[in-house]
Amino acid sequence: MSYIAPVKDMLFVMNELAGIEQLASLPGFEDATPETAQAVLEEAVKLCGDVIAPLNVEGDRNPSSWHNGEVKATPGFAEAFRQFAEGGWQGVQHPTDYDGQGLPKLIATACIEMLNAANLSFALCPLLTDGAIEALLTAGTEEQKQRYVPKLISGEWTGTMNLTEPQAGSDLALVRTRAEPQGDGTYRIFGTKIFITWGEHDMASNIVHLVLARTPGAPEGVKGISLFTVPKFLVNDDGSLGARNDVHCVSIEHKLGIKASPTAVLQFGDHDGAIGQLVGEENRGLEYMFIMMNAARFAVGMQGVAVSDRAYQKALAYAKERVQSRPVDGSAKQAVTIIHHPDVRRMLATMRSLTEASRALAYVAAAHSDIAHRHADAATRERHHAIYEFLVPVVKGWSTELSLEVTSLGVQVHGGMGFIEETGAAQYYRDARILTIYEGTTAIQANDLVGRKTVRDGGAVAKALLAEIGQTVEALGAHEGAAFDAMRTQLAQGQRALQSVVEYVVGNAKGDPNAVFAGSVPYLKLAGIVLGGWQMARAMLIAAGKHAEDPAFYEAKIATAQFFAQHVLPQAGALEVSIVTAKGGEGVFALAEDQF
Amino acid sequence: MSYIAPVKDMLFVMNELAGIEQLASLPGFEDATPETAQAVLEEAVKLCGDVIAPLNVEGDRNPSSWHNGEVKATPGFAEAFRQFAEGGWQGVQHPTDYDGQGLPKLIATACIEMLNAANLSFALCPLLTDGAIEALLTAGTEEQKQRYVPKLISGEWTGTMNLTEPQAGSDLALVRTRAEPQGDGTYRIFGTKIFITWGEHDMASNIVHLVLARTPGAPEGVKGISLFTVPKFLVNDDGSLGARNDVHCVSIEHKLGIKASPTAVLQFGDHDGAIGQLVGEENRGLEYMFIMMNAARFAVGMQGVAVSDRAYQKALAYAKERVQSRPVDGSAKQAVTIIHHPDVRRMLATMRSLTEASRALAYVAAAHSDIAHRHADAATRERHHAIYEFLVPVVKGWSTELSLEVTSLGVQVHGGMGFIEETGAAQYYRDARILTIYEGTTAIQANDLVGRKTVRDGGAVAKALLAEIGQTVEALGAHEGAAFDAMRTQLAQGQRALQSVVEYVVGNAKGDPNAVFAGSVPYLKLAGIVLGGWQMARAMLIAAGKHAEDPAFYEAKIATAQFFAQHVLPQAGALEVSIVTAKGGEGVFALAEDQF
Questions:
Q1: CATH number of the domain where residue A474 is located
Q2: B14 phi-psi bin (left φ>0, alpha ψ -120 to 50, beta other)
Q3: Chain A partners of B325 at a C-beta cutoff of 8 Å?
Q4: Is position B520 within any domain?
Q5: What b-and-e string marks burial along B393-429, b requiring 16 or more CB atoms within 10 Å of the CB?
Q6: How close B51 comes to chain A (CA, Å)?
Q7: Which metal ions or organic cofactors does this protein require, according to UniProt (chains A, B) (predicted)?
Q8: Were B93 and a residue from A22, A595, B31, B108 both cysteine, which residue would form a disulfide, CB within 3.0 to 4.6 Å?
Q9: Residue A578: which of B447, B567, B586 has the nearest Cβ?
């Protein structure tokens, strides 16, 4: 089966939870009405469903391949990429000044979800290009912007991020790649970069590598890293392609999943040095790279939502078709489709509710980003920026951790067939496994959440969100019935649990950093559960108000939220116990290194 | 790196938690002393570490292959199997009357753990043979036992279980394979069986298939299924091999993991019918098959423990070697090995404590099985049998679900390298994924736990175990310090949570089966967490008593238990909330089939 984008659910979140109408009142977003959003999504459905999703299995069976420094993408990918580029999809959220469409990140986020659900491997190429565009727009000179950005937006060229080296993974302080100034404004780059996604391929005529390297005499550590553009082919002043640059793909990795996306080892400067240009100021490369990283982290969070939805769709279709065993309640004498069996139903409801909650949280975050960029009032911009920054590690960390659970349940629903590769459920399980690792592992996200997003402002943003959750709990009190009762009780307990952990984190990060950071991933998961549950609660309230307009749709929203309240939110309490009450941070260090 | 069996940990569990000394007082087990156990384990270490573990990666890269109805095992497997067979390892737990060693299941369990940790794919062949031996010993005629069992124990032949058909997976009522009596005491078998592990291979001279089929006029459903022996080569009266039987391997599956173990589609009776012999009485096949299944389910639980330990060993080695980033507590100015980072430490402690808890619970279950088989007193036998029966679905379901988490953490500890196949961590992640599916999915185990193991006796066994846990909680009160405090508090809460769920299950299974079965997997996980935590608590108490004998070892036991108390046991409360307080069973059915 192919992928059918859940446009109605997406529009519900965009319209009702993320407030797209508000965005249309922001300067520059006048055209971004709900109608525009719907029209864009309906176009994206066609491309993703008809062209890109069908290549997903092929990419797994026939991965991109390396020969003599060149990489061939899976057959069909280059043509699909051409259609993607010609449709203007790379430019959805980028400025019209450089030939983008200038639409809100919220709309782009829904498109990105579709593209990734259709084909994670394929979608990685635009994902990295987006990051390169963001970095150039923020830190590049006008000349650099003009030279690169329109070509990246048109899809004639693609972009990459070159951070990792064999000895420098999560720890960029250890970067060793050198950049030697040539006196003519250019640099020659020498070094080896690994794990470069779409670092070499045949889908575009040029590849713009954004590369972290050290200039001579730069300070040690992360404060001595600069950012460079290193195109595969040098670019002449008229925009035409010049000589082949001295950057070469020496191999690609043999991976567990996302096999169609080539993961390159790039060698810079095997001959005379790869010619690069400084982006922004010397030694500020990490700062610029974080612009790319932040965009990419959010997008990887969307990959988690996307692959979860794809896995859910597949498992659901199987569960509605596969006949096995009589129902436990005696309601039929014959074997029934397995969706009637309680545990299959529980697994599907888990997959569905986690996917919906993580989608809602991510779209809401995207809307905060849009307001942070476009609102006329500086204080409003700042407030929304702070919320977006708080949410990015949660969206990245929580959505991707969920995707491991959801894709695993997807295999489980299929029973023995799930373990057979031809079924396809296993591919999602394999593909998803990178999501909690790249663009910063879950632990890196959790460190960010603790350090820069919670402790630095004394928990101010977290507490503001907690206060809003409290208002939602109150609003739930106006409604009756099992679903609202369950949500009110469980969201209130979740809110208290998150409050307790935020206070613990703020209060102890300086005094007992090991204990606090030992609880950082549990804190991130707790934040995801409570913030995601909050969105589910908001959805319930809206569904109750609009029920008569579309009873079946809104009842399903309420029922899905009820399940989340009963089966997911209770985990918040357990996480709080581990982190705070039971002093779990101590337990992490109870065993000395040599006792392991 | 290869696999180093944790013999000291295994012996600690066997001696202190499972009470091997008691077993040596049982009739027939006089030789099964702690010294014998140690000697056997030390022999097993050599075979598993030196011969079988090194083939694990090779089996993944160069899986068993099918050609023209024949299956070639991975190079090296046949020779390793010869060594396994010649060492007498197939017979460890089988009766001396048929050339087995007659040792307790407890000792065999440790050997099985090692064999599986060394190589899951390889170990599956003996695992299935064990099941065939058990079924023949229970239901076969003396002639059948003499004909097959010594050859299976010697490893000259191997055995298989043939249950599944394309339309009959979890639901054996749908089995269609036919057995037509020939009037000479034999039957001709016609049908297709799928997912037959080691159903065809070149490691032994014959394969004894145990096959479920229906005789003419048999009742519909599971009450009309009989069990047959169908050897690949017919066996002459003198034990020599006769004609090739009409059972053929038409293909093997392309799987996510355990690739070295061929998963066969077997066609019975494409020509004149495959000649088979009835085992036991007609129409009682399912009952006999459950004997095999029960043994196999326990063994699959051990596969979960085993692959978890293997993944833990690999991740630990990497974490002690990989240098990345400075410590968060400022204790070093330079990057340190990643085991110093709190979240890596937390992941390793999670892997370690889950592995130890699931091992302890399984070994304790094995000891109950031994007493159930050998004790002189019938009432004692019955009591221990009931406990063993209660624990089998928990060992199978919980240990294997854990193995998904543990092998996933194993990938995560490796960061980006974990996603590269050459690293090896991904293989455990892929291999483990079948464990929650075959020999009965987790839901099937949970149904068994609810229906036959909890509701049928009104929760009597569960409550007896809960009372014992209560005694352990009291004993913890005699000790001071953070570790004992944490365990006392969390185990007490876990015990209350399990008690509440057992009462709920017993009280509502008849009246509201959908809700109860919707909570069955959460109940199984809760039972695993609390029963596993109980074993960790027992280990702490013993460690406190023996501390002076080996301080480092016993302190590590206490610290590991502390971690389990702080990070795993709190989940018990959340599961109880989902199942009972929040009425999660209702939420599972809140969404109608057509609303999904």
A1: 1.20.140.10
A2: alpha
A3: 170-171, 173
A4: yes
A5: bbbbbbbbbbbbbbbbbbbbbbbbbbbbbebbbbbbb
A6: 26
A7: FAD
A8: B108
A9: B567
* Cross-chain Cβ contact A412/B174 below 8 Å: no
Q: Which pair of tokens denotes residue A581?
A: 């009450």
Domain boundary among A252, A283, A314: A283
A214 and A336 housed in the same domain? no
Is residue A104 one of the residues assigned to a domain? no
What was the ipTM of the complex prediction?
0.98
**Shortest Cα distance from B567 to chain A (angstroms)?**
5
Instruction: Provide, as residue numbers in chain A, all residues whose Cβ is less than 8 Å from the Cβ of B346.
Output: 518, 521, 588
- Chain B residues with CB inside 8 Å of A412's CB? 436-437, 441-442
Q: B343 vs A514: CB contact, 8 Å cut-off?
A: no
- The whole-angstrom separation of Cα A276 and Cα A279 is 9
Q: Are residues A308 and A445 in the same domain?
A: yes
- pLDDT tens, chain B, 596 aa long: 689 999 999 999 999 999 999 999 999 999 999 999 999 999 999 999 999 999 999 999 999 999 999 999 999 999 999 999 999 999 999 999 999 999 999 999 999 999 999 999 999 999 999 999 999 999 999 999 999 999 999 999 999 999 999 999 989 999 999 999 999 999 999 999 999 999 999 999 999 999 999 999 999 999 999 999 999 999 999 999 999 999 999 999 999 999 999 999 999 999 999 999 999 999 999 999 888 888 899 999 999 999 999 999 999 999 999 999 999 999 999 999 999 999 999 999 999 999 999 999 999 999 999 999 999 999 999 999 999 999 999 999 999 999 999 999 999 999 999 999 999 999 999 999 999 999 999 999 999 999 999 999 999 999 999 999 999 999 999 999 999 999 999 999 999 999 999 999 999 999 999 999 999 999 999 999 999 999 999 999 999 999 999 999 999 999 999 999 999 999 999 999 999 999 999 999 999 999 99
What are the phi and psi torsion angles at A325 (to 5°)? 70, 150
* Number of inter-chain CB pairs under 8 A, A vs B: 296
- Residue with tokens 């302190």, as numbered in its chain: B555
Structural domain includes residue A317? yes
* Residues A384 and A508 occupy one common structural domain: yes
DSSP assignment string, A530-595: HHHHHHHHHHHHHHHHHGGGSHHHHHHHHHHHHHHHHHTTHHHHHHHIIIIIT-HHHHHTTS-GGG
Cβ A520–B342 below 8 Å, yes or no?
yes
Q: Are residues A308 and A272 in the same domain?
A: no
B222 occurs within a structural domain: yes
CA-based nearest distance B437→chain A, Å:
6
**A306 and A265 in one domain?**
no
| Identified catalytic residue from A134, A165, A439, A576 | A439
B164 interaction partners in chain A (CB closer than 8 Å): 416
Nearest CA in chain B to A523: B343
Q: What CATH code is carried by the domain that includes residue B270?
A: 2.40.110.20
Same domain, A181 and A207: yes
Residues A483, A540 share a domain:
yes
Contacts of A496 in chain B (CB under 8 A): none
Q: Tell whether the torsion through CA atoms of B261, B425, B357 and A530 is positive or negative.
A: negative
Q: Which residue of B has its CA nearest to A326?
A: B171
Name residue, tokens 């065999």: B108
Backbone angles phi, psi at A323, to 5 degrees: -100, 130
Amino acid at A545: G
Q: Which residue on chain B is closest to A164 by alpha carbon?
A: B416
Which of the listed residues B283, B308, B332 is the one where a domain comes to its end?
A: B283
Minimum distance, in Å, between the CA of residue B257 and any CA atom of chain A: 8
Measured between beta carbons, the chain B residues lying within 8 angstroms of A429 are 256, 433
Q: How many domains does chain A have?
A: 2
Q: Which residue of A has its CA nearest to B510?
A: A329
Do A259 and A126 share a structural domain? yes
DSSP of B12-47, one letter per residue? HIIIIIS-HHHHTTSTT-TT--HHHHHHHHHHHHHI
Shortest distance between the Cα of B294 and any Cα of chain A, in A, equals: 19
Active site residue B401: no
Give, for A136, the enclosing helix (H) or strand (E): helix A120-139
Instruction: Please answer yes or no on whether B570 and A590 come within 8 Å at the CB atom.
Output: no
